From TrEMBL:
Belongs to the GET4 family. This is Uncharacterized protein. One of its GO terms (biological process) is protein insertion into ER membrane. Gene3D superfamilies: Tetratricopeptide repeat domain. It holds the Pfam family GET4. It comes from the Eukaryota. InterPro entries: GET4 (IPR007317), TPR-like_helical_dom_sf (IPR011990).
Length: 351
């Protein structure tokens, strides 16, 4: 008797028995895990991934956030193990699940964090896929989870993400009722502190925020005093002076960083005989820190550390002897302005 032929596994043969168990979420979840574990063991990652995606999607539609997101995280892990590259198709499988994952609870964050980690390993950008960062940031922003949205919008670096970041900071400052300076710092310094500085998103963010603040619908529009030429031909054409020293500083910092030494120039050459642009940067920071006051946001330790980082890495000035912590930007995003998961302004920083 000839041996019985065994059909190779396929999505078409394995997925229907799993979905037929619904709406019994527990049974479908367990059968999906068992089936896909066997597939992975047999090196059929390409079949396990769509089965996990389809089952997770159906569970999330039923409101099973925990079970659905767990399968989504499992899917992302297998995508990483099997070196699935970041493209429109693979990214879409993540965004579809994220859109269905409930905003309450830890599930969306777990799936988002796993997805970003996958794109860091399998994409072109070491900080994670810019498009996925933008999508996650906009998702959190719509839920008014401003603290959660902020790092993703900053990490994206895309123009639209910078515009969304400006709109979020405008809302966070209660549309200009609060001093917008600390909010402007949050959206400007992280871009300027990158090496090389990310000028386009910083410019986009600041220009859009200024436009929102100067509109008649914002109470802050009365605090615009005058405009001055920026003396740069490749950025903002004029600086809008306001009653907020910190907002003024952000604009002048953007202009000054664009005049920093080119990459590859030695520190000795950059400093020259008179200190070069590094001297101007130090003078700018010192002047506006004093104007902001001892309790002002520019005087806070986390901001000062980032300003010093820019001085050292962008303007090539000698670092101070007592160097701060290595994770300066993380300190800025964390302890400087305090936490809170909602959209309220809260204690975001002193004026």
């Amino acid at each position: 008797m000839p041996p019985r032929s065994t059909k190779p596994p396929s999505v078409e043969s394995l997925l229907p028995p799993i979905l037929s168990l619904l709406p019994n979420a527990y049974s479908a979840h367990q059968k999906c895990l068992t089936t896909t574990a066997r597939l992975v063991h047999a090196n059929h990652h390409d079949i396990a991934i769509p089965i996990l995606f389809a089952t997770a999607k159906e569970l999330l539609k039923l409101g099973e956030g925990g079970s659905g997101s767990e399968l989504g995280v499992k899917m992302v892990g297998i995508m990483s193990e099997s070196d699935v590259q970041v493209d429109e198709k693979s990214r879409a499988s993540i965004t579809q699940l994220l859109a269905l994952t409930p905003s309450s609870g830890p599930w969306r964050k777990k799936l988002a964090d796993a997805a970003i980690k996958w794109t860091q390993a399998n994409g072109d950008c070491p900080t994670g896929d810019p498009n996925l960062h933008q999508y996650i940031g906009e998702l959190y922003y719509k839920d008014r989870a401003f603290v959660a949205a902020e790092p993703h919008l900053l990490s994206s670096g895309k123009r639209d993400a910078a515009i969304t970041l400006a709109e979020m900071m405008f809302e966070w400052s209660e549309k200009g009722k609060l001093d917008p300076g600390p909010y402007a710092i949050r959206g400007t310094l992280p871009f300027l502190a990158q090496s090389p500085p990310s000028i386009l998103p910083a410019l986009t963010f600041l220009s859009h925020l200024l436009s929102l603040l100067s509109s008649s619908s914002s109470p802050f529009h009365k605090n615009f005093i005058t405009t001055l030429p920026s003396q740069t031909s490749f950025s903002i054409s004029e600086v809008h002076l306001t009653t907020s020293p910190t907002l003024n500083f952000c604009q002048l910092a953007l202009v000054t960083v664009q005049r920093a030494p080119a990459q590859g120039v030695s520190g000795v050459t950059a400093r020259g005989m008179d200190g070069g642009m590094g001297r101007e940067w130090d003078a700018l920071c010192g002047r506006y820190t004093r104007m902001s006051g001892a309790s002002g946001v520019l005087g806070q330790r986390e901001v000062q550390e980032v300003l010093q980082q820019i001085a050292t890495e962008i303007f090539l000035t000698p670092p101070p002897r007592a160097q701060g912590g290595n994770d300066m930007l993380q300190n800025l995003m964390g302890s400087l302005f305090g936490g809170g998961g909602g959209g309220g302004g809260g204690a975001i920083g002193a004026r």
